[in-house]
Amino acid sequence: MTKKLIDIDLDALAEATALLGTKTQKDTINTALREVAAVQRRAKALGELTEIAATGAFDHLLDKGNYRP
Prior knowledge:
Layout: H1 10-20, H2 25-55
Helix pairs in contact: 1-2
């Protein structure tokens, strides 16, 4: 893991610590970063699903090879 020296909003850090239930600043920051990435991935997936729904093109999902690696 790389060490970085950055300025952090302590009020935001305290709120994130309480919301995430983490014990250390490091855990809070790492958990928050992972949560943001997960939310963005879900939002992207929802957007893609919305586009598919708009066209009514769900038939390609019947073939598992289209969405499984």
